[in-house]
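Hi everyone, sorry if this is the wrong subforum. Our group has a chain we'd like a structural model of before ordering constructs, and none of us has done structure prediction before. Sequence below.
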Amino acid sequence: FATNGIVSSDRKTGYFRFLFSKPVSAPRYYANAFLANGLGLLLVALVLLGLYSLVVRPTLPPSFVPVVLAMYLAYGANGFLLSTIWRFDWLSLVTVAIVAAIGWDTWGQDPGIRGWLMHLLPPTHRAVDVYAFVAGAAGPFPWATLAWLTGYGLVSFLLGLWVLRVRALAAA
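Answer:
Right subforum, don't worry. Here is the predicted structure as tokens:
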């Protein structure tokens, strides 16, 4: 939800004409918007964790902040990329997440081309490890999983910035 329509709503409504009537870099503007939305998501998550701590039981797992940021980068950057491509970013993000979850379960261990193609989709099957750790599962912190999710998100974000550089915002 934090990246819903981040670029596509400006393109759809024509606001980009007003936003960029002065010499402002579109990639820089939307990178700042992505950062601000991420910080807003983190603030909301911390407020909700605080309410949970007051109402149910006090808790503040040290891994909470890095996990929220990694999930935002993994899924939010994918939404950002889809928003730069076309206007149905939210629907396509949900579709990509569902296809990725089904695909990783079905072909994730396939040594052939299908298994290799699965690496182009978000690593949703690995997010469960991170959620389990934050929820209190025993074991070491899944740094490799967090790095994979963060790296995937970073690549998606950079691809989105590249699309903003090479594609005109007026293109539908």
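For your construct planning: The chain is about 70% helix and 0% strand. The two ends are 22 Å apart (CA to CA).
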